[in-house]
Write a structure and sequence with these properties.
The protein is built from 17 helices and 16 strands. It is of the alpha+beta class and about 450 residues long. Bound molecules: histidyl-adenosine monophosphate (HAM). Histidyl-adenosine monophosphate binds near residues 95, 124, 131, 300 and 303.
Length: about 450
């Protein structure tokens, strides 16, 4: 079938997902919940407040901050004109929206720095492939209002900590992009160097040479690796202040025992960075090979000019975002048992309509008393319910029947030997706890 008719068929098919968009099914969601919980616990302890910005922003916000020549703005934004003829865009990243909110809500009046985090979906119209989706999610951290190297280091320390707690070994690939002025000087040298090698470059890089020469350094095409090897390096062309800043960030990382690799090719794909730039890579090359290990799980850096670009006061800041899908793919590979589920200990079964009506409150009583309980409120018939209890491997089944309901009792069935006892239903939680404790002994 020709591609165009295949495409239109898909678009008309109401039960097909758009390309590059994914469902997160219940089994998968266990990982998401655990990861969000882990991030929340750590970030709260380190004084970060969670906030949410709209998924939709005016297009100009991203054009002004990410850079017209960046891949994201030049070809990856989901932009459209709304009914008021305003151009709006599904957010491709968090930082610009958070910076806008910082200005709009006068957050510069709060004690500085303001430490924020966000979690949610982002949209980039890229070619879908492994690790690259059109809708993906990020965990984003920002420290706004500090020019100290400690802020860059705190962000990187937390990135490593979060990965470590998720069972991942990662390596921090770090570089310094210097000040906008020192970078301008460096770009002249870089262009000069590459101009002589233009004919060896891939088509994209030939174009980058004119539009966005810094990106020549992170091209992954085989043809561009050789010229890259001898290219002049940013770190050799830093202004004095940026150099000092970089050294201090590295000292913090040394003292905090965060392993890092100085990588002169980390330049980042968004325009707003200055000084520190880094990416988080999986430390162990995955079975998919060396290249897969270079897929960034996250990236970030310092962006001292961004808030001023948006009309705010000069406000230094640093941040990071993890790609949650990429990170969880690594977690599943490295730690298949990461979300081992706690099994229920008790099953609640009931017989007859009156007992069924009581079962919600009884279930809630057991749950609230801390007993891990399961039930299937839709299943009729004791046999089917006991089979289910057996399958779940519970120690006891609590059976609420018509007769028991009338005399205020309830049956506890030991699933190991089938023995049944009738107990006072008011004391069911205590009775179960006693028996469960014995099983553990
Ligand atoms: P970024 O490098 O564009 O940075 O994205 C951060 C991470 O998001 C990437 O390392 C990757 O894991 C994930 N990611 C990006 N695009 C996709 C995609 N199409 N599919 C799946 N995952 C993807 C930023 O977005 C900056 N705002 C980070 C930052 C925060 N800088 C300062 N503060």
């Amino acid at each position: 079938m020709p591609e165009s008719s295949e495409k239109s068929k898909k678009a008309k098919n109401a039960v097909a997902r758009p390309r590059g968009f994914y469902d997160i099914l219940p089994e998968e969601n266990e990982y998401w919940r655990k990861f969000h919980g882990l991030a929340e616990e750590i970030l709260l302890a380190y004084g970060f407040a969670e906030m949410a910005t709209p998924i939709l922003e005016y297009t100009s916000l991203f054009k002004r901050t990410l850079g017209e020549t960046s891949d994201v703005v030049s070809k990856e934004m989901f932009s459209f004109t709304d009914r008021s003829r305003d151009s709006v865009t599904l957010r491709p990243e968090f930082t610009a929206g958070i910076a806008r909110a910082y200005i709009e809500h006068g957050m510069f009046n709060r004690p500085q720095p303001v430490k924020l985090w966000s979690f949610g979906p982002l949209f980039r119209y890229d070619r879908p492939q492994a690790g690259r989706q059109r809708q993906f999610h990020q965990l984003d951290l920002e420290i706004i209002g500090s020019s100290q190297p400690a802020a860059d280091a705190e962000i990187i320390f937390l990135a490593a900590l979060i990965c470590g707690r998720a069972g991942l070994e990662v390596s921090v690939q770090i570089n310094s992009l210097g000040s906008p002025e020192s970078r301008r000087e460096y770009l002249k040298i870089l262009k000069e160097y590459y101009r002589a090698k233009k004919r060896f470059l891939c088509d994209d890089c030939k174009e980058r040479l004119g539009r966005n020469p810094l990106r020549l350094l992170d091209c992954k095409q085989p043809a561009c690796q050789e010229p890259k090897k001898d290219s002049p390096q940013l770190v050799d062309n830093l202004d004095e202040e940026s150099k000092q800043h970089f050294v201090k960030v590295l000292e913090y990382l040394d003292e905090s025992e965060v392993p890092y690799v100085l990588n002169p090719y980390i330049v980042r794909g968004l325009d707003y960075y200055n000084r520190t730039a880094f990416e988080i890579w999986p430390a162990v090359p995955s079975s998919a090979g060396e290249e897969a290990a270079q897929i960034a799980l996250g990236g970030g850096g310092r962006y001292d000019g961004l808030i001023e670009t948006l009309g705010g006061r000069p406000t230094p800041a640093a941040g990071l975002a993890f790609g949650v899908e990429r990170l969880l793919t690594e977690v599943k590979r490295a730690r298949p048992d990461w979300v081992a589920k706690e099994k229920p200990k008790v099953f609640l079964a009931r017989l007859g309509e009156e007992a069924a009506k009581r079962s919600f409150l009884l279930f809630e009583k057991l749950r609230a008393s801390g007993i891990k309980t399961a039930a299937n409120f839709a299943k009729e018939g004791l046999k089917a319910q006991l089979e289910l209890a057996d399958k779940l491997g519970v120690a006891f089944t609590v059976i609420l029947g018509q007769k028991e309901l009338l005399d205020g009792t309830i049956i506890i069935r030991d699933m190991e030997n089938g023995m049944q006892e009738v107990v006072d239903s008011a004391k069911i939680d205590e009775e179960l706890k006693k028996r469960l404790a014995k099983k553990i002994d």
